[in-house]
Amino acid sequence: MGHPLRNDAAEFDTAVQPPESRAGLGLRMLRQMFSSWPSVVAAAILIAIVLTALFAPLLSTADPVAISPAERFALSSDLHPLGTDAFGRDIYSRVVHGARVSLIVGAGAALVSVSLGLVIGVVAGYFRAVDSVIMRTMDGIMAIPSILLAIALISLTGASLMTVLVAITVPEIPRVVRLVRSVILNVRSEAYVEAAVTLGSPVWRILLRHMVPNTVAPLIVQGTFVFASAILTEATLSFLGAGLPTEIPSWGNMMSEGRMYFQLYPGLVLYPGIALALTLLSVNILGDVLRDLLDPKMAKRA
Amino acid sequence: MTMIVEYPVAAMGAPVLDIRGLCVSIANKDQSSVVNDVSFSIRAGETVCVVGESGSGKSVSAFSIMGLLPPDALRVTDGQVLLQGEDVTKASPDRLRDLRSTKMSMVFQEPMTALNPVEKVGPQIEEVLILHRNYSAAERRRRVMEMLESVHLPDPERIYDSYPHQLSGGQRQRIVICIALVLEPALLIADEPTTALDVTTQRQILTLIRELQERHNTAVLFITHDFGVVADIADRVVVMNAGRVVEIADRDTILSSPKEEYTRMLIASVPSLAPEPRAALETDVVLSLSGLDKRFTSRRFLRKSASVHAVQDVSLTLRRNEILGIVGQSGSGKSTVGRCVVGLEQPTDGTVTICGQRTDNLGAKDRRLLRRQVQMIFQDPFRSLNPRVRIGESMIEGPTNYGVDRGEAMARASELLELTRLPKSALDRYPHQFSGGQRQRICIARALMLDPAVLVADEAVSALDVSVQEQILDLLDDIRAETGVGILFITHDLRVAARICDTIYVMNEGRIVETGPAAEVLTAPKEDYTRLLFQAAPGRHWDFRNFRPL
User: Fold this and answer.
1) What fold is seen in the domain B1-103+188-268?
2) What single-letter DSSP state applies at residue B352?
3) In this complex, which of A16, A199, A201 lies closest to B433 when CB atoms are compared?
4) pLDDT tens for residues A44-97?
5) Does A9 touch chain B (CB under 8 A)?
6) Contact B484, B317 (CB under 8 A)
7) Beta-bridge partner residues of B543
8) ipTM of the modeled complex
9) Tens digits of per-residue pLDDT, B375-391?
10) Has residue A296 been placed in a domain?
11) What share of chain B in percent tops pLDDT 70?
12) Of A4, A17, A200, the CB nearest to B372
């Protein structure tokens, strides 16, 4: 629409639209992103949780791992705002420190699975010879239930933050690989990629300049979902006792220990549970908003 | 400005469709108008062609007649659309549903997307009868069979039980026409119904529409960008530009003595089917193919592998300064030949010789050096530039790949932009800031950055409006004269081929059927297939450039 009127066939139209700066585009996206209240609330909660994790030592009122048998199941007091658990450890401080574990696991799993998945997916999508080998391997990994795979990996190596992180990340990789591969396969036949081939561009330039940028938007969205599901998996593993040892406070192992006294002291499960639920909810809301923003087609269908 | 052509009312009867001062605007705050004060009418048995370039508002007008405007994006702001005296713009959604297919119906450009891919076509036609008529199952089936026969589909019983993907493009369009006409509506709107089809199929569909129109005395509103089609089927013509009606007159008046400058320009842009004789070239051979063969094989697990013989035994020679046209319908293998030449596909057999050097017995490094001699221009200018990369960066990509200094390459890029008549400031812009024709000029400039000896243009003007097409063809002709590059010009359009090519190779089913100087092949074709193509070309009895019949 609004085609420039051409009166003379010989006259070339030289009218060019005004440029739009990339920064302007980013700013507009941000504004659009926070135009609805759920996304604003979700962002606020997530920022609060990140700050809590960063400043956990300053915010906590007691040593989260200090056992004090005299103070078992203490009720809320000035010293212990949320009371203490079966070993007399301060619940508030443990919840605050638990945010660290959750965020490290979430961010770590998201970053590692997205970057490994990107590399493997690009290789599978571009180099046809290795495609079927890689993809069948990924199918194999996907065929094993991720919790079982994680438990198996942890029991092989012993529980630590590192092994838990690896155990959570590995089952997430195939999904990212599939996503990246599908984008690369789609872009392969784009005329601008073929044009680059005829211009004699080396493979690395074709990949980095013409293909990989197309995967950024879907990967950001996928990353947020990995982030949420990794936090949940860590909590599940710790709850089952296969996760982090109790010296490292995590929302999952707090709930696991509190489970036995739930009817007497519901706070043991409730407080870490609320923290976990709020974190997951806000990450998922932000992930949805991002998806709608980066893929307008999906937003309309929803 | 609107022009109302007065017809003797008694002789013609009341119009089936009467559009009065129709205005359509974008449904947002600034209400910018897309269609402005459009008025025309169609009588029973009459074909009115609405012609215009992309963005002229012709499709939007058609959609507002059908009440199919997307309600959150476009809205009718003024005017009336009277269908047999009833204002469609005021009709309730229920009433509109009733009117569609009983009184007015539409045929779309792309028959594959207009049909439901997971339902057999017979029941899809029947659905209209279920919704609007109280027929018994047996009556419905009989009526559908009648329709399938009347659109000349072979073996209606088999077609009835086919899925859309099992039919050819032409057959699918016939099914869509069945659906549109099964209730014998008073008005048929056809929105570029033959644009996605081959010329020979296009001819059949146009004849079919004409035949059914005569049988049922239907009023036909035919939207097209192709003046050839207009010359063949129109009774009256409405020329549109930028949302306004430029001119309305009967066909012969429009084609022979258009009043408005814009109409005159559009018609004069239609290339003639008769090429000007050109002198044979005796320059060096820059590209030669001998016995080129390409077979696509898809290996399938535990089943016999399927293979398509896309190109069979193709040989040709392209000289410096020559424009060699490969002409053929879709699936004839013409694009595959082009892709083999630029190295996007590896030939199964045969040799490609570029500037005297065979490509098949070279090492990877030498082959890469030779490749820069052959560059390509693609069909779709909207997809052949990376939307994330500035024009300048896109243009210097080729030379920097071969070790040219960035600054030097940029200087060359701005020279070439000048040659393709684009401002130097284009270097810092992104592709979305340019129109289709401008982008195609950028692509041409980019292809020239490596000083190639051969340019392969694969349907390079097919996606462009006629007036822009004319500019690009002129540009290619100039570039050939200036740089001496040999151009392999692949097209399905005989007019474009006649306009620009020195030599023409006609391809059908992977083989070359006929070759010769353009003047010979297009004026005195020897082979039946070439003659068939030529006869199917729309508007071949009209000389558009000189505004007279041939």
Assistant:
1) Rossmann fold (3.40.50)
2) E
3) A16
4) 999 999 999 998 888 888 888 777 777 777 777 777 778 888 788 888 888 999
5) yes
6) no
7) B548
8) 0.82
9) 999 988 888 999 889 99
10) no
11) 97
12) A200
